[in-house]
Amino acid sequence: MKSLITASLLFSAAILLNTNEANAQVGIGTTTPHSSAALEINSTNKGILVPRMAQANRPASPATGLLIYQTDNTPGFYVYNGSAWTAVSGGSGAASISLTTRATSPYLSGGAAGPYFFNPVPYQTGPKEVIIPENNPTTALNGTSKYTGFVVPANCTFTKIKLAARVISGGVDNGTNNTTTVTLFKNGVTTGLSVQVTTGSAVGNSGANATTGTITAVGGDIISYQYTQTNQEPTTSYSIVLEGQ
């Protein structure tokens, strides 16, 4: 009889344990884990350490959703998506943006020139050049004004504008320096983000500069460049780079 009672108690305990295992939620640092979570970890000064390993030691047959921290060959968090390991973006995971525009100012007798507007070149696989106009103070040869230009495809933040200038053949060396200013416009309004470079007028003179700032844009915003020169006697080739994320 004693053996029968003991067996019954053990069987009942097993049922209770299985029931708890099927329905239990685990809380670490909290006694009330959220109803939607199988596991909730609560801490204000500690983190979670997931398994860390070299790429060569990753599991050969991982479950979909398995997370590891890889310590070599582009270290970072990786998750198995069912067919391949993919990197998990970090806190600044937005893809970087870099718009590169090449522009040339042709010879224009009479000194200063601008303001002109021209279009930042959109995403591209090769270089593209814009000719800054000779005689129209509001639009460039590609029809860009401060109200038309490159349409931003998605929300982003521009953080730096770079300008490089080099005097090339085709103009006049009048012995006067040329200061070029390029300003970013958004929806026809100046953003205040501009960069300035001063070069001589002789062929081969060059200069470069960069300015940082924070300019937010949303999909559909229109960005354009305003351009001015203090001396357009020399012909100058420019590279303008707009960076962000």
Name the features.
5-stranded antiparallel beta sheet, 5-stranded mixed beta sheet, 245 residues, elongated, Jelly Rolls, 9% helix, 16 strands, mainly beta
Q: How is this structure best summarized?
A:
The chain is mainly beta and 245 residues long.
Blueprint (SSEs and pairs):
Layout: H1 2-23, E1 26-28, E2 39-41, E3 52-53, E4 67-70, E5 76-80, E6 85-87, E7 97-105, E8 113-118, E9 129-131, E10 150-151, E11 156-168, E12 178-186, E13 189-199, E14 206-217, E15 222-229, E16 235-244
Parallel strand pairs: 1-2, 3-4, 7-9
Antiparallel strand pairs: 4-5, 5-6, 7-16, 8-15, 10-15, 11-14, 11-16, 12-13, 12-15
How does this model look, in words?
With 245 residues, the chain is mainly β. A 5-stranded mixed sheet has the order 9-7-16-11-14, with no helix packed on it. Strands 8, 10, 12, 13 and 15 form a 5-stranded antiparallel sheet that branches. The protein contains 1 helix and 16 strands. The protein folds into 2 domains: 25-87, no CATH class; 97-244, Jelly Rolls, CATH 2.60.120.
